[in-house]
Amino acid sequence: MSYGCHNRAPFREVYPVQDGWYMDGKTRVPRMTAAKHVLSRDCQYTNSDPGRVDPGCVGCKHRISTEENHAKR
Questions:
Q1: List of residues 6+ apart from 68 with CB closer than 8 A
Q2: How far is residue 17's CA from residue 65's CA, in Å, rounded to a whole number?
Q3: How is the chain split into domains, by residue range?
Q4: CB within 8 A of 63, min separation 6: which ones?
Q5: Would you say the C-alpha torsion 56, 58, 62, 68 has a positive or negative sign?
Q6: Alpha-carbon distance 13 to 64, whole Å?
């Protein structure tokens, strides 16, 4: 079994988000702007004890190696 995150595509750099409203004649229209992706791109599950041994994570390109995990502690 593998998970939906297993070897998923990389996150986008920028996402469209709503930044208020503007009036287009008589209609309210959402004002959109771009927001940068600022969250961690590493797999956070492999930082946990269960995540280090989960067989569903074996072979995933986002898995953090044991050496990297120990360096972060």
A1: none
A2: 34
A3: 14-72
A4: 43, 46, 57
A5: positive
A6: 21
In this prediction, what percent of the chain has a pLDDT beyond 70? 86
Please tell me what DSSP assigns to residue 72. Answer: H
Record the tokens describing residue 19, joined without a space. 């930044």
Q: Is residue 34 within 8 Å of residue 14, measured between CB atoms?
A: yes
**b/e burial code for range 57-69 (CB count within 10 A of at least 16 → b):** beebebbbeeeee
Q: For 45, how many CA atoms within 13 A lie in the half-sphere containing its CB?
A: 14
pTM: 0.59
Residue 5 has pLDDT above 70, yes or no: yes
pLDDT confidence tier of residue 27, bands split at 50, 70 and 90: very high
Q: Tokens in use for 31?
A: 């004002």
